[in-house]
Amino acid sequence: MAPGPAPARPGSGRLARLWATRRERASELALDLLVGTGLCRVVVMRAHGVRIRLTPAAMCRYLWRDRRAYAADLAIYPRLLRPGDTVVDAGANIGLVALVAARAVGARGQVHAIEAHPVVAGYLSENVRINRAANVRVHQVALGDRPGVVRLATHPGDDSQNHVAAEGPGTTVAVVRLDELLAAVGRVDLLKVDVEGYERFVVAGARGLLPRTRMIYFEAWERHAGRYGYTVGELIGDVQREGFVVGRLAGDGFRRVGADHVAAECENLLALRDVDDFQSRTGYRLV
Predict the structure, then answer these.
(1) What are the helix and strand counts (H, E) for the chain?
(2) What digits encode the pLDDT tens for the residues 249-275?
(3) Are the beta carbons of 283 and 277 closer than 8 angstroms?
(4) pLDDT tens digits for 177-217?
(5) Nearest-angstrom CA–CA distance, 37 and 195
(6) 71-286 domain in CATH 3.40.50.980?
(7) 16-40, pLDDT tens digit by residue?
(8) Hey, where are the domains in the chain?
(9) pTM of the entire structure?
(10) What is the mean pLDDT of the chain?
């Protein structure tokens, strides 16, 4: 999930730019001091209607700079979801999406927030706790097409880029299939998958869950897919064979894409089990 472009600042001219630069530098220095001393743990930010504990996580750094970061990505969830829905967040990171979704589905709904990295999963659990989000369950486990273990390459400067890798520094974590992890869950209204290129394997491990899944919202980028030897078109083909229609959201429209689609830039695609249900549920139109 990308933080999005910084909004335009008021004022113009050299003086305004100088003032903005000094403010940003002071903010960065304050953040570095808080993180370096560990005092960040006593700071709670409020963004997008939820509370986020300040930690060394990359998403926290973006939110510290601008509480409106990620607004474009998050805006879709209240529109897709309804009270009582069930959401699965695969690649939950610190829990921003999971908590926004939890507000949308309400006390009668549930959110399964899945994060592989143990440290980041700890941040996620803390954010669930301080939001008193009783409808969110945290799972600290990696997802794949078969049970086992994987090495998770870590990026100290940007934990949002942590990904499965065969070698290099990292953390070993257990892998489960999503359909086995959530075997007892009934209908899934939204499965969100953002796992830095490992999406195809998560989908393959969810085949037993997909027949009772209404929508899949997944990140797609050739650069990340190529890391694991496949193309976004192949992932789209996998999803289509499970009975979904795949497309992109733009404004109030849903435009279908096929297995020939090339995701030259990082984007999110939406897969629908029932297009008519989606239109009546959300107000989006086919374009």
Answers:
(1) 11, 15
(2) 998 999 999 999 999 999 999 999 999
(3) no
(4) 999 999 999 999 999 999 999 999 999 999 999 999 999 99
(5) 30
(6) no
(7) 777 667 778 888 899 999 999 999 9
(8) 71-286
(9) 0.90
(10) 92
Q: What is the pLDDT of residue 278?
A: 97
Residues 6+ apart with CB under 8 A from 89: 97, 98, 101, 111, 112, 113, 114, 192
Rounded Cα distance between 70 and 91, Å, is: 15
Tell me the C-alpha distance between 146 and 51, whole Å: 35
d(CA 97, CA 89): 8
Q: Structure tokens of 158? A: 């940007």
- Helices 58-65 and 13-37 pack at an angle, to 10 degrees, of 140
Q: Write the burial class of residue 13 (CB in 10 Å: 0-12 exposed, 13-18 middle, 19+ buried).
A: exposed
DSSP sequence for 18-87? HHHHHHHHHHHHHHHHHHHHTGGGG-EEEETTEEEE--S-HHHHHHHH-TTTTHHHHTHHHHH--TT-EE
Angle of helix 118-130 relative to helix 96-105, nearest 10 degrees? Answer: 40
Are the beta carbons of 166 and 142 closer than 8 angstroms? Answer: no
| In contact, 269 and 227? CB cutoff 8 Å | no
Tell me the three-class secondary structure of 85-99, residue by residue.
Answer: CEEEEECCCCCHHHH
Q: Which residues contact 95 (CB under 8 A, 6 or more apart)?
A: 52, 113, 123, 124, 127, 128, 136
Query: 166: which 2 tokens?
Result: 């065969």
